[in-house]
Design a protein that fits this description.
The protein has about 950 residues and is of the alpha+beta class. About 30% of the residues lie in helices and about 20% in strands. The chain is built from 19 helices and 29 strands. Helix 9 runs parallel beside helix 12 and helix 10 (about 720-735) packs across helix 18 (about 895-920). It is globular and about 85 Å long.
Length: about 950
């Protein structure tokens, strides 16, 4: 993807000085640190041919690179990506101004302001010149460099530099390049993507890789995002997804070797940025499920008092020089109190971590040890230096940085670990590392900032004013203190999401960034904490980024970014070799109230069969747990292309599932399943939750709602009309303006509450169509459907906890789900006429206030699930209170025409798939479908 282009704006921008805020909180002096940030603009403000300038009060105008990420329907810029370099003193805050030159002003490039990155390619190499450094990249084998020249001085010994993956039989594989893409080409940052596979001349491809390399103007620093990817499908016998699956690959080492060009033995220096480790962070007794007759007792708190735990340097920062021909910094475990947590079990149910924390070896002698290191390392001779760092080194354990001979070795999966590494089918892992090359020798690595990069932002007021994110009210304009006191516990205090990781040691290359699902530990009686993973349920990424934009607190951004990285690698099933309705999908949260054991983040384990009915247990990625809006916002705020790509994957997951249903065999099996579920429901009645009553894509529910949301996000991102058409087909298959809602049994709470998720997505669909002035038949169809259901809600819905006897687990989460009803009714108010609007707003406020009041009664109100739901859904009510909502002028529409059109839409989508399946009957496709269902799995 390469969507760089020049941008400009209208003369209106001269009235704006958009603040760009840089906060340095890590105690590090920054010099020309490269930063990237997405900034939104109001509709019609920024058009073509940019004259955007970034002004610093001390340094004047800074060189600036711009890229369009999204446009408004009038082709003005909605989101622009800014790249620049910034110098900042330790513990300072700088406010830059993004503005424009007037039509009569000129911007003269001075020598200091001139920046350029050039790229040229021949048959064997791709050459990137940043102005100070020439990087030559082999186009056949990814090393990553053949040559590095800084001001005419060769820094790298190409013949000894390499990337090697070693399997369990000690076979070594090299990464062979298949494709090269220039993703971003600019004067300040150029990013190139490489794709290929690890293989040897004797053996076929072992595993895939892709890597993004970012180069910066006048800099010898390279940022490398390196991903190893197993494209095979898991076999998941019986729908169970344990470690040790035949679709997994196993290996013992993945390392990157950068060798200094030197005729004399180099020396090595390293810096240990040791971070704090919480002590005695254990589970206390968990409260029992809520009893509606009493206020719940007990609380979910650690035993000890802890202050905020930040990912920032502490006083334990060491700059050391070793006189050795071999040095190793090796992090074996997290260094936390629970470093031997069962969260780290391998395929045999064993935890293979050898010791707590890290050790530094000179040769075989231990010269230093500690708990949590984020080191940088440099090797140098008299006039050359190579430095390296891995971001989140200890958090992504095991890791190693080594100096051996003339070579700096970065071991992303180190051979020192006491086990083989298993990459499951469809799983991948991305590491971010930095390499710096210099002709000057210094005690510093030049990478001190790499663990704690600056996070530029604008103000909550500008984010809100831009209207690029709907219903965003700045925190300081929201009077609901109870709400913010609650959601801020996710980032502040002893029980923040950061600290909560300590409970099950939610660290390691597969786990870091994940939210611990502590709500699943309610009533847990074991001596060890319950291992349970949240897997982005309800879109925690979006919730955290929403709070970041409302408050400006960068801890929210850190939380979202770390979760986003985990979700993209681990929670998405990156394969095309499984069933269509599994490929590219998102895995569920791990099983309710049961330890994850060897299922890692994939929900269903053979270890669970003693607790579940094996005849109906199992499955795979599901449409009910498919979330894209956080990924979309992450892309807009950061320009991170992997977030863009993941949305496309999850969209294909929805499309494949919808398309795979168009076989006669599937229709027959679906109806048989419904009959079976119906019989079981009326004869057994074992549980309030009856799977036969939970809607799939044929009614308003979680699967249809999240699928519609995914298709809308993909349409927003790409503008692809075919995707919009699929979304509209899904709407007409799911809901109708003339639905007899009573027959929907929506007050069967446990089985039907999901309908409000679909209605939220339907409101979002109306917003997207309205923004594009698409007041067509489908707009009216969706509007009438929404209002029909909203009117029913006003008359019939009640706060869930008013009737706890209808709930299997009447807990704090039901109070937060009431906030969804508020948001549905606010959508209805926006799209209703004036006579209805006040009624909808009043009922929306009723559900919001009742939800908050009920939630405050629970000492479990700060568990992960209710917090995420409040982060996600709690701000729309504030926006309607504090901001003027634009009135929608409802276009006239003939009632007779409307009825005929709606009738046609409804019956076409009800019977159309069956008719199309008959017309397009393919024996091959029918057999393939049977194979997916009955043979392969």
């Amino acid at each position: 993807m390469n969507n760089s282009r020049n941008t400009t704006h209208s003369s209106q921008l001269s009235a704006y000085n958009i603040p760009i805020i840089i906060e340095e909180t890590s105690g590090i002096n920054r010099y020309n640190e490269p930063v990237t940030v997405g900034i939104p603009f109001p509709k019609g403000l920024l058009m073509e041919e940019p004259r955007l300038r970034l002004h610093h009060s001390e340094y004047g105008y800074l060189p600036l690179q711009t890229q369009t990420l999204a446009e408004w329907p009038d082709n003005s810029i909605k989101w622009a990506l800014l790249d620049f370099q910034i110098s900042a003193g330790a513990n300072t805050t700088n406010e830059l101004k993004l503005t424009k030159l007037s039509s009569t002003s000129r911007y003269e490039d001075t020598t200091e302001n001139k920046t350029e990155i050039s790229i040229n390619q021949d048959s064997k190499s791709l050459n990137v010149n940043t102005g100070t450094t020439l990087f030559s990249i082999n186009t056949s084998v990814f090393k990553p460099f053949d040559l590095v020249v800084v001001d005419d001085k060769d820094i790298l010994n190409s013949s000894a530099s390499k990337i090697i993956l070693t399997d369990g039989a000690d076979t070594e594989y090299e990464p062979h390049i298949r494709n090269i893409f220039i993703e971003t080409k600019g004067n300040l940052r150029t990013t190139i993507k490489f794709k290929g596979e690890f293989k040897t001349t004797q053996k076929p491809a072992f595993v895939n890789f892709f890597s993004r390399m970012s180069f910066f103007a006048n800099s010898s620093i390279v940022k490398i995002d390196f991903t190893i990817h197993n494209p095979q499908a898991a076999k998941h016998p019986g729908g169970l997804w344990d470690l040790g699956d035949p679709g997994s690959i196993f290996f013992k080492d993945l390392s990157i070797h950068a060798t200094l060009s030197s005729n004399e033995p180099p020396t090595v220096s390293y810096q240990l940025n040791e971070e704090p480790s919480s002590l005695n962070y254990q589970l206390s007794t968990m409260p029992a499920p809520w009893n509606p007759s009493i206020v719940p007792s007990g609380s979910y708190e650690p035993n000890n008092e802890l202050s905020d735990m930040n990912y920032e340097p502490t006083a334990k920062t060491y700059q050391l020089t070793a006189h050795s021909s071999q040095l190793t910094i090796y992090q074996d475990s997290s260094g936390g109190e629970n470093w031997k947590s069962m969260n780290h079990v391998n395929r045999n149910g064993e935890v293979k971590n050898s010791y707590r924390g890290y050790k530094v070896y000179s040769g075989k002698q231990i010269i230093s040890e500690g708990l949590r290191a984020n080191p940088t390392i440099s090797i140098k001779n008299n006039d050359k230096q190579i430095s390296g760092a891995v971001q989140y080194f200890w958090q992504n354990f095991p890791k190693a940085l080594e100096f051996k001979g003339n070579t700096l070795i970065t071991r992303l999966f180190p051979k020192q670990y006491n086990d083989l590494f298993e990459l499951q089918g469809g799983e991948q892992k991305t590491h971010t590392m930095f390499l710096s090359f210099d002709k000057r020798v210094s005690d510093k690595t030049g990478l001190e900032w790499a663990q704690y990069p600056l996070i530029p932002r604008t103000t909550p007021e500008w984010y809100s004013k831009s209207l690029a994110l709907p219903y965003l009210a700045p925190k300081n304009e929201d009077s609901d203190k109870e709400y913010f006191d609650l959601v801020n516990t996710a980032i502040l205090g002893k029980n923040s999401f950061f600290n909560r990781r300590e409970i099950i040691d939610e660290y390691g290359w597969r786990n870091f960034g994940e939210f611990y699902a502590d709500h699943e530990a309610i009533g847990h009686k074991g001596t060890e904490p319950l291992v349970s993973h949240y897997n982005n349920q309800y879109d925690g990424i979006y919730g955290a980024l929403l709070q970041y934009m409302r408050s400006g607190n960068t801890k929210w951004s850190q939380l979202a970014d770390q979760l986003c990285a985990h979700v993209k690698d681990i929670d998405v099933y990156h394969t095309d070799e499984d069933r269509p309705e599994y490929n590219r999908g998102m895995f569920w949260h791990t099983e309710h109230y049961i330890d994850a054991q060897t299922s890692t983040h994939r929900c269903f384990s053979k270890k669970h069969l003693e607790f579940r009915d094996k005849s109906v247990y199992g499955g795979g990625p599901g449409l009910s747990h498919n979330y894209t809006t956080g990924l979309l916002l992450h892309y807009y705020l950061t320009g991170n292309c992997s977030s863009f790509e993941t949305i496309k994957e999850l969209t294909s997951f929805v499309e494949n599932t919808m398309d795979s249903e168009n076989t006669l065999v599937n229709y027959s099996m679906s109806r048989l399943r419904r009959i079976k579920c119906f019989i079981e429901d009326i004869t057994q009645r074992k549980s309030m939750v009856q799977l036969g009553k939970v809607y799939g894509l044929n009614g308003p529910g979680r699967a249809s709602g999240n699928s519609l949301n995914t298709l809308i996000d993909s349409y927003i991102l790409t503008g692809n009309q075919k995707i919009l058409k699929k979304a509209e087909n899904l709407i007409t298959c799911t809901i109708n303006p003339d639905d007899n809602i009573t027959k929907r049994e929506l007050l069967d709470t446990e089985n039907r509450w999901f309908y409000i998720i679909f209605l939220q997505s339907l409101g979002k669909y109306l917003d997207v169509k309205t923004e594009r002035v698409q007041f067509d038949t489908m707009w009216h169809y969706a509007r009438q459907s929404l209002l029909n259901y909203a009117e029913w809600m006003v008359k019939n819905e009640y706060p869930y906890l008013n009737r706890p006897e209808k709930l299997e687990h009447p807990n704090e989460t039901w109070a937060t789900q009431d906030i969804r009803k508020c948001n549905v009714l606010l959508y209805a108010a926006k799209y209703s006429n004036k006579s209805q609007s006040d009624t909808f707003v009043d009922k929306a406020s009723f559900f919001y206030n009742k939800g908050i009041n009920y939630l405050q009664k629970f000492e479990t109100k700060t568990l992960t699930r209710p917090l995420v739901l409040m982060m996600l859904n709690g701000s729309m009510h504030s926006y309607f209170k504090s901001q003027k909502v634009e009135e929608i002028k409802i276009p006239e529409f003939s009632e007779t025409f409307q009825k005929n059109k709606f009738y046609k839409h409804y019956f076409y989508n009800l019977f159309g798939p069956t008719i199309r399946a008959v017309i397009n009957f393919s024996l091959k496709r029918e057999v393939q479908f049977l194979k997916w269902r009955l043979i392969a799995k």
